[in-house]
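Handout, section 4.2: multi-component inputs.
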Amino acid sequence: MHELGIVINIVEQIEDFAKKNSLTKIDKLVLEIGELSSVVPKYIEDVYPMAVEQTMLQDTTLQIIIVPARVLCKDCHTVFNDITNKCCPKCNGHNLKLVRGQEFNIKEIVAY
Amino acid sequence: MEKYRVIEIQRNVYAKNDEEAAKVREKTREENVFLLNLMSSPGSGKTTTLVQTITRMKEDFKIGIIEADIDSDVDANTISKTGAKVIQLHTGGMCHLDASMTSQGLDTLETNGLDLVVLENVGNLVCPASFDTGASKNAMILSVPEGDDKPLKYPKMFRIVDALIINKIDALDYFDFDIEAVKERAKALNPNIEIFPISARTGEGVQAWCDWLGKQIKTWNGA
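Output:
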Protein backbone atom coordinates (compact mmCIF):
# COMPACT_ATOMS: atom_id res chain seq x y z
CA MET A 1 0.00 0.00 0.00
CA HIS A 2 1.67 3.18 -1.12
CA GLU A 3 -1.29 5.40 -1.78
CA LEU A 4 -0.91 7.47 1.39
CA GLY A 5 2.66 8.46 0.54
CA ILE A 6 1.59 9.37 -2.97
CA VAL A 7 -1.35 11.50 -1.82
CA ILE A 8 0.84 13.33 0.70
CA ASN A 9 3.22 14.05 -2.16
CA ILE A 10 0.34 15.37 -4.31
CA VAL A 11 -0.80 17.64 -1.47
CA GLU A 12 2.73 19.08 -1.23
CA GLN A 13 2.79 19.70 -4.97
CA ILE A 14 -0.58 21.50 -4.87
CA GLU A 15 0.42 23.64 -1.88
CA ASP A 16 3.56 24.60 -3.76
CA PHE A 17 1.54 25.50 -6.81
CA ALA A 18 -0.95 27.51 -4.72
CA LYS A 19 1.82 29.48 -3.05
CA LYS A 20 3.49 30.31 -6.36
CA ASN A 21 0.20 31.42 -7.89
CA SER A 22 -1.09 33.29 -4.81
CA LEU A 23 -4.22 31.17 -4.48
CA THR A 24 -6.05 31.65 -1.20
CA LYS A 25 -8.55 28.83 -1.21
CA ILE A 26 -8.88 25.52 -3.00
CA ASP A 27 -12.26 23.88 -3.46
CA LYS A 28 -11.61 20.81 -5.49
CA LEU A 29 -8.84 18.59 -6.76
CA VAL A 30 -9.22 16.55 -9.94
CA LEU A 31 -6.93 13.56 -10.53
CA GLU A 32 -6.66 11.47 -13.67
CA ILE A 33 -5.82 7.83 -13.02
CA GLY A 34 -5.14 5.37 -15.81
CA GLU A 35 -6.72 1.95 -15.57
CA LEU A 36 -3.24 0.41 -15.68
CA SER A 37 -1.41 2.86 -13.42
CA SER A 38 -0.10 1.31 -10.23
CA VAL A 39 -2.57 3.00 -7.90
CA VAL A 40 -5.99 1.94 -6.71
CA PRO A 41 -8.52 4.79 -7.01
CA LYS A 42 -10.53 3.52 -4.04
CA TYR A 43 -7.45 3.59 -1.79
CA ILE A 44 -6.66 7.11 -2.96
CA GLU A 45 -10.17 8.14 -1.90
CA ASP A 46 -9.82 6.34 1.43
CA VAL A 47 -6.53 7.95 2.44
CA TYR A 48 -7.36 11.39 1.06
CA PRO A 49 -8.98 12.77 4.27
CA MET A 50 -5.90 11.72 6.29
CA ALA A 51 -3.44 13.20 3.82
CA VAL A 52 -5.14 16.61 3.60
CA GLU A 53 -5.70 17.08 7.33
CA GLN A 54 -4.31 20.43 8.47
CA THR A 55 -3.20 21.37 4.98
CA MET A 56 -4.54 23.88 2.49
CA LEU A 57 -6.57 21.05 0.97
CA GLN A 58 -8.35 20.17 4.19
CA ASP A 59 -11.84 21.15 2.99
CA THR A 60 -11.50 20.16 -0.63
CA THR A 61 -13.45 17.56 -2.51
CA LEU A 62 -11.61 14.97 -4.55
CA GLN A 63 -12.69 13.92 -8.02
CA ILE A 64 -11.05 11.00 -9.80
CA ILE A 65 -11.35 10.51 -13.53
CA ILE A 66 -10.52 6.98 -14.62
CA VAL A 67 -8.69 6.84 -17.94
CA PRO A 68 -9.43 3.56 -19.76
CA ALA A 69 -6.52 1.69 -21.31
CA ARG A 70 -6.03 1.81 -25.06
CA VAL A 71 -3.84 -0.50 -27.05
CA LEU A 72 -2.56 0.12 -30.58
CA CYS A 73 -1.73 -2.71 -32.93
CA LYS A 74 1.41 -1.57 -34.73
CA ASP A 75 0.76 -4.00 -37.59
CA CYS A 76 -2.74 -3.03 -38.70
CA HIS A 77 -3.16 0.21 -36.70
CA THR A 78 -6.33 -0.93 -34.94
CA VAL A 79 -6.90 0.72 -31.56
CA PHE A 80 -8.77 -1.31 -28.96
CA ASN A 81 -9.34 -1.15 -25.24
CA ASP A 82 -9.87 -4.73 -24.21
CA ILE A 83 -6.69 -5.14 -22.20
CA THR A 84 -7.37 -8.80 -21.46
CA ASN A 85 -6.59 -9.45 -25.12
CA LYS A 86 -3.05 -10.67 -25.60
CA CYS A 87 -3.27 -10.09 -29.36
CA CYS A 88 -4.97 -7.73 -31.81
CA PRO A 89 -8.70 -8.54 -32.17
CA LYS A 90 -8.53 -7.72 -35.89
CA CYS A 91 -5.31 -9.25 -37.24
CA ASN A 92 -4.25 -11.40 -34.22
CA GLY A 93 -0.88 -9.63 -34.25
CA HIS A 94 1.30 -9.41 -31.14
CA ASN A 95 3.06 -6.17 -32.03
CA LEU A 96 1.08 -4.13 -29.50
CA LYS A 97 1.73 -0.84 -27.81
CA LEU A 98 -0.04 0.60 -24.81
CA VAL A 99 -0.95 4.16 -25.79
CA ARG A 100 -3.14 5.15 -22.86
CA GLY A 101 -4.04 3.92 -19.39
CA GLN A 102 -0.82 4.28 -17.38
CA GLU A 103 -1.17 7.98 -16.60
CA PHE A 104 -1.50 9.42 -13.15
CA ASN A 105 -1.97 13.17 -13.40
CA ILE A 106 -3.03 16.08 -11.31
CA LYS A 107 -5.52 17.33 -13.88
CA GLU A 108 -6.86 20.52 -12.38
CA ILE A 109 -7.91 22.34 -9.25
CA VAL A 110 -10.81 24.66 -8.59
CA ALA A 111 -9.48 27.58 -6.58
CA TYR A 112 -10.00 31.18 -5.58
CA MET B 1 -19.29 35.88 -3.76
CA GLU B 2 -15.69 35.31 -4.55
CA LYS B 3 -14.81 34.34 -8.08
CA TYR B 4 -13.42 30.88 -8.54
CA ARG B 5 -11.31 29.56 -11.37
CA VAL B 6 -10.61 26.15 -12.72
CA ILE B 7 -6.87 25.87 -13.06
CA GLU B 8 -5.49 23.26 -15.43
CA ILE B 9 -2.38 21.73 -13.93
CA GLN B 10 -1.89 18.59 -16.06
CA ARG B 11 1.14 17.54 -14.14
CA ASN B 12 2.23 13.95 -13.80
CA VAL B 13 2.08 12.94 -10.13
CA TYR B 14 5.49 11.32 -10.53
CA ALA B 15 6.97 14.56 -11.94
CA LYS B 16 8.36 15.64 -8.56
CA ASN B 17 9.98 12.24 -8.08
CA ASP B 18 11.43 12.41 -11.59
CA GLU B 19 13.02 15.79 -10.77
CA GLU B 20 14.57 14.31 -7.61
CA ALA B 21 15.78 11.30 -9.60
CA ALA B 22 17.48 13.60 -12.12
CA LYS B 23 19.29 15.32 -9.22
CA VAL B 24 20.49 11.96 -7.88
CA ARG B 25 21.81 11.05 -11.35
CA GLU B 26 23.58 14.40 -11.68
CA LYS B 27 25.25 13.98 -8.29
CA THR B 28 26.38 10.39 -8.84
CA ARG B 29 27.67 11.34 -12.29
CA GLU B 30 29.75 14.15 -10.78
CA GLU B 31 31.11 11.92 -8.02
CA ASN B 32 31.77 9.01 -10.43
CA VAL B 33 29.56 6.74 -8.39
CA PHE B 34 27.59 4.06 -10.23
CA LEU B 35 24.24 3.45 -8.57
CA LEU B 36 22.54 0.09 -9.14
CA ASN B 37 18.91 -0.29 -8.11
CA LEU B 38 18.33 -3.97 -7.32
CA MET B 39 14.74 -5.15 -7.10
CA SER B 40 13.02 -8.50 -6.50
CA SER B 41 10.40 -10.34 -4.46
CA PRO B 42 11.15 -11.13 -0.83
CA GLY B 43 13.18 -14.32 -0.58
CA SER B 44 14.63 -14.29 -4.10
CA GLY B 45 18.17 -14.21 -2.75
CA LYS B 46 19.03 -10.51 -3.12
CA THR B 47 21.33 -10.44 -0.13
CA THR B 48 23.08 -13.73 -0.99
CA THR B 49 23.55 -12.53 -4.57
CA LEU B 50 25.00 -9.28 -3.25
CA VAL B 51 27.44 -11.09 -0.98
CA GLN B 52 28.64 -13.16 -3.99
CA THR B 53 28.89 -10.00 -6.12
CA ILE B 54 30.82 -8.01 -3.51
CA THR B 55 33.25 -10.87 -2.88
CA ARG B 56 34.12 -11.02 -6.59
CA MET B 57 34.26 -7.28 -7.22
CA LYS B 58 35.74 -5.74 -4.08
CA GLU B 59 39.31 -6.03 -5.39
CA ASP B 60 38.52 -3.73 -8.31
CA PHE B 61 35.81 -1.44 -6.95
CA LYS B 62 35.02 0.36 -3.73
CA ILE B 63 31.50 -0.75 -2.88
CA GLY B 64 28.73 0.69 -0.73
CA ILE B 65 25.33 -0.88 -0.05
CA ILE B 66 22.05 0.74 0.94
CA GLU B 67 19.72 -1.84 2.45
CA ALA B 68 16.08 -0.81 2.42
CA ASP B 69 13.56 -2.65 4.52
CA ILE B 70 10.39 -1.86 6.33
CA ASP B 71 12.11 -2.86 9.54
CA SER B 72 15.12 -4.83 10.97
CA ASP B 73 18.81 -4.82 10.06
CA VAL B 74 19.29 -8.52 9.36
CA ASP B 75 20.47 -7.91 5.78
CA ALA B 76 22.79 -5.05 6.68
CA ASN B 77 24.44 -7.30 9.22
CA THR B 78 25.07 -10.05 6.66
CA ILE B 79 26.45 -7.58 4.12
CA SER B 80 28.76 -5.82 6.59
CA LYS B 81 30.66 -9.11 7.05
CA THR B 82 31.90 -8.80 3.44
CA GLY B 83 33.73 -5.60 4.33
CA ALA B 84 31.54 -3.39 2.13
CA LYS B 85 30.32 -0.09 3.51
CA VAL B 86 26.66 -0.55 4.41
CA ILE B 87 23.75 1.41 5.82
CA GLN B 88 20.24 0.29 6.66
CA LEU B 89 17.34 2.43 5.51
CA HIS B 90 13.99 1.89 7.20
CA THR B 91 11.13 2.80 4.91
CA GLY B 92 8.63 2.91 7.76
CA GLY B 93 5.96 0.86 6.05
CA MET B 94 6.50 2.21 2.54
CA CYS B 95 6.64 -0.58 0.00
CA HIS B 96 9.12 1.08 -2.34
CA LEU B 97 12.01 3.55 -2.39
CA ASP B 98 11.58 6.87 -4.14
CA ALA B 99 14.25 9.26 -5.33
CA SER B 100 14.27 11.48 -2.25
CA MET B 101 14.70 8.47 0.06
CA THR B 102 17.52 7.27 -2.19
CA SER B 103 19.13 10.68 -2.00
CA GLN B 104 18.98 10.60 1.82
CA GLY B 105 20.47 7.10 1.76
CA LEU B 106 23.35 8.26 -0.44
CA ASP B 107 24.05 11.19 1.90
CA THR B 108 24.06 8.94 4.96
CA LEU B 109 26.33 6.40 3.27
CA GLU B 110 28.75 9.18 2.22
CA THR B 111 29.36 8.05 -1.33
CA ASN B 112 32.43 10.12 -2.12
CA GLY B 113 35.27 7.79 -3.10
CA LEU B 114 32.98 4.82 -3.81
CA ASP B 115 32.77 3.32 -7.33
CA LEU B 116 29.60 1.26 -6.92
CA VAL B 117 26.59 1.73 -4.69
CA VAL B 118 23.88 -0.92 -4.70
CA LEU B 119 20.45 0.06 -3.55
CA GLU B 120 18.73 -3.05 -2.26
CA ASN B 121 15.13 -2.01 -2.80
CA VAL B 122 12.19 -3.26 -0.72
CA GLY B 123 11.23 -6.83 -1.69
CA ASN B 124 8.33 -6.20 -4.05
CA LEU B 125 7.82 -6.58 -7.80
CA VAL B 126 5.04 -4.00 -8.06
CA CYS B 127 5.57 -0.41 -6.98
CA PRO B 128 9.38 -0.17 -7.09
CA ALA B 129 8.87 -0.38 -10.87
CA SER B 130 6.89 2.87 -10.84
CA PHE B 131 9.37 5.02 -8.93
CA ASP B 132 12.60 6.15 -10.54
CA THR B 133 15.24 6.11 -7.79
CA GLY B 134 17.80 7.98 -9.88
CA ALA B 135 19.87 4.82 -10.36
CA SER B 136 22.40 4.54 -13.19
CA LYS B 137 21.00 1.09 -14.04
CA ASN B 138 18.16 -1.09 -12.78
CA ALA B 139 18.34 -4.82 -12.23
CA MET B 140 15.97 -7.43 -10.88
CA ILE B 141 16.22 -10.95 -9.53
CA LEU B 142 13.66 -13.64 -10.27
CA SER B 143 14.26 -16.91 -8.47
CA VAL B 144 13.28 -20.34 -9.75
CA PRO B 145 10.75 -21.20 -6.96
CA GLU B 146 8.75 -18.05 -7.78
CA GLY B 147 7.68 -19.53 -11.12
CA ASP B 148 8.20 -18.79 -14.79
CA ASP B 149 4.94 -16.83 -15.13
CA LYS B 150 6.26 -13.74 -13.35
CA PRO B 151 7.02 -11.72 -16.52
CA LEU B 152 3.33 -12.16 -17.39
CA LYS B 153 2.16 -11.10 -13.93
CA TYR B 154 4.52 -8.18 -13.33
CA PRO B 155 5.24 -6.88 -16.84
CA LYS B 156 6.18 -3.37 -15.75
CA MET B 157 9.12 -4.56 -13.65
CA PHE B 158 10.48 -6.63 -16.55
CA ARG B 159 9.99 -3.69 -18.90
CA ILE B 160 12.02 -1.15 -16.89
CA VAL B 161 15.07 -3.18 -15.87
CA ASP B 162 18.37 -3.33 -17.75
CA ALA B 163 19.31 -6.73 -16.36
CA LEU B 164 17.44 -9.80 -15.15
CA ILE B 165 19.17 -12.26 -12.85
CA ILE B 166 17.51 -15.67 -12.70
CA ASN B 167 18.63 -17.03 -9.33
CA LYS B 168 18.55 -20.48 -7.72
CA ILE B 169 19.20 -22.36 -10.97
CA ASP B 170 20.68 -25.12 -8.79
CA ALA B 171 17.04 -25.87 -7.85
CA LEU B 172 15.77 -26.16 -11.44
CA ASP B 173 15.34 -29.93 -11.13
CA TYR B 174 12.82 -29.56 -8.34
CA PHE B 175 10.49 -26.97 -9.90
CA ASP B 176 8.39 -26.71 -13.04
CA PHE B 177 10.31 -23.68 -14.15
CA ASP B 178 10.84 -23.24 -17.87
CA ILE B 179 13.90 -20.99 -18.10
CA GLU B 180 13.59 -20.60 -21.88
CA ALA B 181 9.99 -19.44 -21.47
CA VAL B 182 11.12 -16.78 -18.97
CA LYS B 183 13.80 -15.54 -21.35
CA GLU B 184 11.32 -15.40 -24.20
CA ARG B 185 8.67 -13.60 -22.10
CA ALA B 186 11.17 -11.10 -20.72
CA LYS B 187 12.60 -10.38 -24.19
CA ALA B 188 9.10 -9.85 -25.58
CA LEU B 189 8.53 -7.13 -22.97
CA ASN B 190 12.01 -5.69 -23.14
CA PRO B 191 14.15 -6.63 -26.18
CA ASN B 192 17.32 -5.06 -24.70
CA ILE B 193 17.19 -6.89 -21.36
CA GLU B 194 20.38 -8.74 -20.34
CA ILE B 195 19.69 -12.10 -18.70
CA PHE B 196 22.00 -13.87 -16.23
CA PRO B 197 21.04 -17.33 -14.91
CA ILE B 198 22.93 -17.82 -11.64
CA SER B 199 23.05 -19.75 -8.42
CA ALA B 200 24.04 -17.44 -5.60
CA ARG B 201 24.44 -20.53 -3.42
CA THR B 202 26.97 -22.38 -5.60
CA GLY B 203 28.35 -19.33 -7.41
CA GLU B 204 27.45 -20.69 -10.86
CA GLY B 205 26.98 -17.93 -13.44
CA VAL B 206 27.75 -15.14 -10.98
CA GLN B 207 30.96 -14.13 -12.78
CA ALA B 208 29.10 -13.28 -16.01
CA TRP B 209 26.81 -10.97 -14.04
CA CYS B 210 29.82 -9.34 -12.33
CA ASP B 211 31.57 -8.87 -15.69
CA TRP B 212 28.51 -7.10 -17.09
CA LEU B 213 28.19 -4.94 -13.97
CA GLY B 214 31.89 -4.07 -14.05
CA LYS B 215 31.57 -2.94 -17.64
CA GLN B 216 28.58 -0.72 -16.77
CA ILE B 217 30.48 0.87 -13.88
CA LYS B 218 33.48 1.65 -16.09
CA THR B 219 31.27 3.17 -18.79
CA TRP B 220 29.40 5.31 -16.25
CA ASN B 221 32.54 6.45 -14.49
CA GLY B 222 34.18 7.28 -17.80
CA ALA B 223 37.15 5.00 -17.22
